[in-house]
Design brief:
Shape: globular
Number of strands: 10
Order of helices and strands: HEEEHHEHEHEHEHEHEE
Helix content: 10-25%
Strand content: 15-25%
Structural class: alpha/beta
Number of helices: 8
CATH superfamily: Vaccinia Virus protein VP39
Distance between the termini: 27 Å
Strand order of the largest sheet: 1-6-5-4-7-8-10-9
Number of domains: 1
CATH architecture: 3-Layer(aba) Sandwich
Length: 302
């Protein structure tokens, strides 16, 4: 989960506190950070990174653990303008998404050969990493803050997909020279400008490309990205700008409701339904009592 629209997270609480007066302070409004491509050679060497195994239906993935204070170079402050600490946490939706993708692949509903994949709000990037392990041709990772990519996502990709230690991550010769893995930071309202696969204008979005000139990503992944009500329109517009037509699919894992911030899978789907150019089907519902009801949805163009 990673913030894609800066409005809600320009100012937020990193640590719990009994001091409630901070809740009444007016958030600092800052422009979103610049959209940039983060190169593997830019991986952080100053942040301590440790690996932990994650077991998923017979598959072992590795997830990194880093310090929020080190990543964002914090002092003892509760508020971090323009940063979103949630991108450093592995949320349940990422694991729900991988389980549903595994089932889709086993049942023949998902093919990864030659496919271009974009994971939005990637954080740890485990769903995109799983796609790489299973044979997707191109996997691009997007997160709101470049620090998350440098300190967490890139080392995770390196450990899982390239089977290299964190200390070798700066050797770009070890990376796939065809650019299988690429990383992009920026706000959902602007990041399409630097993504390699997208529709260039509204007129182009409304027609199908020729078979020898494919446009857009074949698969878009997102886990726990629909929590902010104010960010939903930007997220949805980004999907339409970047998803291949007519055969692209979106896999979305999210809680049904995010109490306190107004978002949730159903609020996002109401936006999709109102627009009437995409359809959605429910793949899984998780009600294990550990959190709000979680869902995994599959969306595609009509």
């Amino acid at each position: 989960m990673a913030a894609g629209q800066s409005g809600l997270f320009d100012s937020f609480r990193l640590f719990s506190s009994s001091d409630d007066k901070i809740q009444s302070e007016k958030p600092l409004l800052l422009p979103p950070p610049a959209c940039v491509q983060v190169l593997p050679s830019e991986v952080s060497s100053s942040v301590k990174y440790t690996l932990e195994p994650v077991e998923l239906c017979g598959l072992t993935l590795l997830k990194g653990r880093v310090s929020t204070q080190e990543v964002f170079q914090l002092s003892n402050s509760d508020l971090v303008p323009g940063k979103y600490e949630g991108g450093l946490k592995l949320w349940e939706g990422s694991l729900d998404l991988i389980k549903s993708l595994q089932l889709e692949l086993q049942e023949g509903h998902l093919s990864l050969t030659g496919k271009r994949v974009l994971e939005l709000g990637c954080g740890h990037g485990l769903p995109g990493i799983w796609m790489g392990i299973e044979g997707a041709a191109v996997i691009h990772f997007q997160d709101f803050n470049a620090e998350v990519l440098r300190c967490l996502t890139i080392p995770n990709v390196y450990a899982n997909c390239l089977k290299k230690s964190r200390t070798l991550a700066t050797d770009v010769r070890e990376w796939n020279t065809d650019g299988k893995f690429q990383f992009f930071a920026g706000d959902w309202s602007e990041v399409h400008q630097i993504l390699p696969y997208k529709w260039t204008n509204e007129k182009e979005q409304n027609c199908c490309p020729s078979l020898d000139q494919p446009v857009g990503y074949d698969i878009i992944l997102m886990a726990e990205t629909v929590y902010s009500l104010s960010a939903l329109p930007h997220l949805y517009e980004l999907i339409k700008k970047c998803l291949n037509r007519p055969n692209g699919v979106v896999y979305m894992a999210a809680k049904k409701h995010y109490f306190g911030v107004g978002g949730g899978s159903r609020r996002f789907l109401s936006l999709v339904e109102k627009d009437a150019v995409m359809v959605a089907c429910l793949l899984a519902e998780v009600a294990d009592g550990s959190s709000n009801v979680r869902e995994v949805w599959k969306l595609h163009f009509k």
